[in-house]
Write a structure and sequence with these properties.
The structure is a single chain. The protein is an alpha+beta fold and 206 residues long. The protein has two domains: 120 residues, Pnp Oxidase, Chain A; 62 residues, Methane Monooxygenase Hydroxylase, Chain G, domain 1. Helices cover 33% and strands 26% of the residues. It is built from five helices and ten strands. It has an eight-stranded antiparallel beta sheet. Strands 7-8 form a two-stranded antiparallel ribbon. Helix 3 packs parallel to helix 5 and helix 4 packs antiparallel against helix 5. The longest helix is centred in the last third of the chain and has 21 residues. The termini are far apart. This is DUF447 family protein. InterPro entries: DUF447_C, DUF447_N, Split_barrel_FMN-bd.
Length: 206
């Protein structure tokens, strides 16, 4: 059942799309972590989440109406979360109201409360308001390798939607800035993403 969207819900032309990590709580209280590209309004007071069903994040949002959105400079964490290759969940602490989980090593977090869910479209449109926030540490700064790694991870999630030749060509181009400006963390994660993409494409051609 959909709840009607707010009349001033943020949309792509009006907001900024951020690459973030979103935590929600499963029915048993376990933390679920998912990379997402939410759209935030200029005031950072409203957020549009766009999960694709079926989705544990969407199930948790429907049930609890709460999530925590994180910004981070840990591109390797974003990339591994995108391809489902996290060996363990990063450390978390409860939100002040205990309705969510904060990634301990994130740069900044914003607690979200669901205002409306519109599942008449795909992805589902989940409008949230920011009900709390905090800064945990400084953002380390911009780096070409980190950006390239995130772009490669996004390509990994588009294997079923984009021509495989285009994906492989773009990944090959992204390797150069990772090699030139990345550290061990970025290079290792990029190799994992690249292998994931190549293996998925190879399996699809069988």
């Amino acid at each position: 059942m959909s709840t009607p969207p707010a009349p001033d819900a943020p949309s792509l032309p009006d907001g900024l799309l951020l690459e973030c990590l979103v935590t929600t709580l499963d029915a048993d209280g376990q933390v679920h972590l998912a990379p997402m590209g939410p759209i935030v309004d200029p005031s950072f007071e409203r957020v549009l989440l766009r999960p694709y069903p079926p989705s544990r994040t969407l199930d948790n949002l429907r049930r609890d109406g709460a999530a925590v959105m994180h910004t981070t400079d840990d591109a390797a964490l974003l990339a591994r979360a995108a391809i489902g290759e996290l060996t363990e969940l990063p450390a978390t602490t409860p939100t002040p109201d205990c309705r969510g989980a904060i990634l301990s090593d994130a740069c900044q977090w914003r607690q979200l409360s669901v205002e409306s869910i519109d599942d008449s479209t795909c992805p589902v449109q989940v409008v949230c308001r920011v009900s709390g926030s905090g800064v945990l540490r400084d953002f380390v700064g911009f780096n070409r390798a980190k950006h390239a790694l995130i772009e490669a991870a996004i390509l990994a999630t588009r294997i079923d939607h984009l021509p495989h030749e285009k994906i492989l060509a773009q990944v090959a181009m992204l390797a150069a800035p990772v090699d030139k400006t990345g550290g061990h963390a970025e290079r290792d994660a990029f190799q994992e993403v690249r292998c994931f993409i190549e293996n998925r494409i190879r399996e699809g051609l069988r």
